[in-house]
Design a protein that fits this description.
With about 350 residues, the chain is an alpha/beta fold. The chain folds into 2 domains: about 180 residues, NAD(P)-binding Rossmann-like Domain (Rossmann fold, 3-Layer(aba) Sandwich), CATH 3.40.50; about 130 residues, UDP-galactose 4-epimerase, domain 1. The strands form 3 sheets. It has a 7-stranded parallel sheet with strand order 3-2-1-4-5-6-10, sandwiched between helices. Strands 7-8-12 form a 3-stranded mixed sheet. Helix 1 packs across helix 8 and helix 5 packs parallel to helix 7. The mean pLDDT is about 95.
Length: about 350
């Protein structure tokens, strides 16, 4: 039997990375090496229990660790965490991860991308969202290096459908049993992606290098506004869903992780930062404007159907598959890590005033 190719996954214990690790490992075509700062964590142990998965201890922002992690692997799937690194540090380590992968002889590099909002919005600073733009700049840099020597692909995702269970999309249950989404969303359609399908798309990128090399695969499950979300929720669950659009100034105090938070809020309020680190409010003001104003590019649904014929194709289908009821569930690693470390200052969604 031929030796399995090994794929390094950076970000493999995160919400997006875990389904990627599972898809690669369960395909029977790859061994998976996962870089993690905490091999003893419950998420790391969950993926370590899978066949063909090994853990390597190290950090995304340590160049020696990156050299060790990339050494000897065929491919890499890389998702750095901008919410701990911040925009400037993510740019540095995003560039360096690519360069180190090339130095170590990696043959296929997949970057977990987010669209470059500022560029797509024709450089209008209203839409400068640091965590999106850092990822998007790195993605453009990677593809600009060409395909000779190391193939590269981008997997571009929008907001996760699972953020309806954990994150800024969780509704608040009312005393009468209805569920209200109160946020700055406007009429723009948001390309929500179901995380379980991210693994299938990532597997396809590695399985089909002749087609995926140089490709920016922009994925979606369903393009919906928050009015659509509330309506579909009512249709699927029988519970009343309501969307109320409010100004960002009204919304921010209810959603901000803690007063005066920065975008890399997971490091805590006392971490050393400089003026390049956006505040949570500046970052997410731009984020809500970008999605609400409908600036994003349309996805190629024909291509997505060909790659993944069994993909989830609608928000209603996703809600039925996960038995969505509007109530919070744990999904996002950043929130989980914060709440373990700061139990007295836990971040909760769908439970505020």
């Amino acid at each position: 039997m031929a030796e399995l190719k090994e794929i390094l996954v950076i970000g493999g214990t995160g919400a997006q990375g875990m389904p990627v690790v599972k898809a690669l490992a369960e395909s029977g075509r790859y061994r998976v090496r996962v870089l993690t700062r905490s091999p003893e964590s419950s998420r790391a142990q969950e993926i370590a229990a899978l066949q063909n998965v090994t853990l390597i201890q190290g950090a995304q922002d340590n160049q020696q660790d990156l050299h060790r992690a990339f050494q000897g692997v065929y491919g890499a799937w890389v998702n750095t965490d901008g919410f701990t690194l911040g925009e400037k540090n993510e740019l540095y380590y995003g560039f360096r991860a690519y360069e180190i992968a090339r130095a170590e002889g990696v043959q296929h590099y997949v970057w977990a991308n987010i669209e470059y909002a500022l560029k797509i919005a024709d450089w209008n600073e209203k839409y400068h969202c640091g965590h999106m733009d850092a990822k998007g700049r790195i993605g453009e840099f990677i593809l600009a290096q060409g395909q000779e020597g190391m193939k590269s692909s981008l997997l571009s995702t929008g907001p996760y459908m699972e953020m309806l269970m954990d994150g800024m999309f969780v509704p608040k249950e009312q005393p009468d049993g209805s569920f209200w989404w109160v946020n700055p969303a406007k009429a723009g359609k948001i390309p929500l992606i179901s995380l379980q399908d991210v693994g299938v798309y990532s597997l396809w990128l590695f399985d089909n290098p002749s087609e995926s090399a140089g490709l920016n695969l922009e994925v979606t499950t369903d393009d919906v506004s928050f009015t659509d979300i509330a309506r579909i929720f009512t249709e699927v669950t029988g519970k009343q869903g309501v969307h109320k659009s409010v100004s960002f100034e009204q919304y921010a105090p209810l959603a901000e992780p803690y007063p005066g938070a920065f975008v890399n809020w997971g490091l805590g309020p006392n971490a050393v930062r400089d003026e390049s680190t956006m505040t949570w409010r500046d970052n997410f003001s731009a984020w809500w404007h970008y999605w609400g104003d409908g600036i994003t590019r349309p996805r190629d649904l024909g291509l997505l159907d060909r790659i993944h014929p069994g993909r989830i194709k609608s928000l209603a289908e996703w809600m039925r598959r996960v038995s969505y009821d509007g109530r919070p569930r744990s999904v996002l690693k950043l929130v989980e890590d914060w709440n373990k470390k700061y139990s007295d200052k836990a971040v909760t969604y769908g439970q505020g005033d």
